[in-house]
Amino acid sequence: MNLEYFIAKRLIAAKNHKSSISAPIIKIAIAAIAIGMIMMIVSVATGIGLQQKIREKVAAFNGHIIITNYDDNQSQVSISPISTNQDFYPKFKNVEGISHIQAVATKAGIIRTETSFEGIIYKGVGKDYQWKNLEEYLVQGKLPDVEHKLTPDVLISKYLADRLNLKVGDKFNTFFMKDNSNQLPNLRVFVVAGIYNSGFQEFDATYIIGDIRHLQRINKWKPDQVGAFEVFIDDFNQIEQKGQQVYNNTQNKEDASKTLDTQTISEKYYNIFEWLQLFDFNIIVIIVIMIIVATINMVVALLVLILERTQMIGILKAIGANNWSVRKIFLYNAFYLIVRGLLWGNCIGIGLIIIQQQFGIIKLNPDSYYVNVAPAHLDWLYILLLNIGTLVICLVVLLIPSYIITKISPVKAIRFE
User: Which of 3, 52, 265, 321 is the most buried (most CB within 10 A)?
Assistant: First the structure.
């Protein structure tokens, strides 16, 4: 039998324990641990969720790695064409971890309606385009069918549709300027097939998506010429490594004039991803503060428990119990309180995250956060690590106040009231 555990268990179950002076302090300590765990779970889940959601949105419109000509490096539109007759297309076999590659082209234009006009970037896509990345953002209509004959159908954002007073099925004129500014612009009549709302203002206010063959005709390109390639990878954490590998495998050693450039979305949208990295620092700060608060409350509770059981400590020492055995009794007691607080904190914290996932109660300003609803991601590994970390740190720190037991004299303790 573990004597220390047996005594600690009796102390926890003792009826007079609940009515003692330590009861409110113990409740506060448990509540502090529970609140701290709730805050840590919510901060980690929302922080990781926001990072993942924004990465997904940026990748949905750009891929993870963009392959372009060097003269397109600083431009949002395709200037000179790239042939699709590449070793890496349509399957990028030389680099592992690449899930998909697609050919696209972009061109600036102006949408003109009877009442308004807007500057846009027309993104032309082909048969290989991965529409599933945009399906979740589709709010009305359908996705354009670009796999068969040339279609005027386009996908337009809700932001642009509202500003231009367009709805599904409406036709609108789009003007594309020619290289020679003295010539009349190219006119194309498009039809709104679907309306999307990504909540990412930078993209919603800019892009309409349609058939790449329109741009090939406007630019007088051949059917095998495109503006860029978008590459998707399996693991975003390896984006820099994969970006370098993709670059190495797209270089033409025989003809330097055909050399291509690659750019990861973390490089292209540097400010956004730098801002996302701040969330990691914020999460760490919250975790540290919550653990400190919980630990301080547990230290106070343990000291009160020791003070309240001073006579018991004296008796145990008098009958031969050593200091470490007595300290273990109170550490077992503290362990129970910590676990109880963690249990409540996990139940409430995980419950709040699930509610947010299902109902999206907390809304965010898309102009500031790039999303309409606060995303939450439950990572069970992180939750497990938070619980283990909190438990271990609290118990290690509690070794310090438990040292006071070694200073208690059995004679004085037995007489203590």
Answer: 265
Position 316: which residue type?
A: L
Q: What is the pLDDT of residue 21?
A: 67
Strands in 56-204 per DSSP E: 65-69, 82-83, 98-112, 117-125, 138-141, 153-157, 171-176, 186-196
Q: From CA 316, how far away is CA 326, in angstroms rounded?
A: 7
Q: Which two tokens stand for residue 19?
A: 């009515």
Phi-psi region of 141 (alpha: psi -120 to 50; beta: other; left: phi over 0): left
Rounded to whole angstroms, the Cα distance separating 115 from 105 reads: 29
Identify whether the C-beta of residue 334 lies closer than 8 Å to the C-beta of residue 395. Answer: yes
- The two tokens of residue 154 are 């386009």
Sequence-ordered alpha helix ranges (H) in 253-379:
265-268, 270-308, 310-318, 323-359, 366-369
Looking up tokens 């300590």 gives: 29
Residue 50 token pair = 């926001």
SS3 content of the chain, % helix, strand, coil (to 5): 55, 20, 30
Is-above-0.90 flag for pTM? no
Find the radius of gyration of the CA atoms of the chain. 32
Tokens, residue 40? 């840590």
96, 158 in Cβ contact below 8 A?
A: no
Tens digit of pLDDT for each residue in 113-160?
Answer: 888 899 999 999 999 999 999 998 999 999 999 998 999 999 999 999
The pLDDT, as a whole number, for residue 364 is: 85
Half-sphere exposure of 112 (CA within 13 A, CB side): 11
DSSP labels for 217-272? HHTT--TTEESEEEEEES-GGGHHHHHHHHHHTT--SS-GGG-EEEEEHHHHTHHH
Q: Is 62 exposed, middle or buried (0-12, 13-18, 19+ CB in 10 A)?
A: buried
* Separation of alpha carbons 128 and 224, rounded Å: 13
If you count them, how many residues does the chain have?
417
**Residue-wise burial string across 177-206, b where 16 or more C-beta atoms lie within 10 A, e elsewhere:** eeeeeeeeebebebbbbbbbbbbbebbbeb
CA atoms of 137 and 122, how far apart (whole Å): 18
pLDDT tens column, 246-293: 998 887 655 555 678 899 999 999 998 998 888 888 899 999 999 999
pLDDT at position 389 over 80:
yes
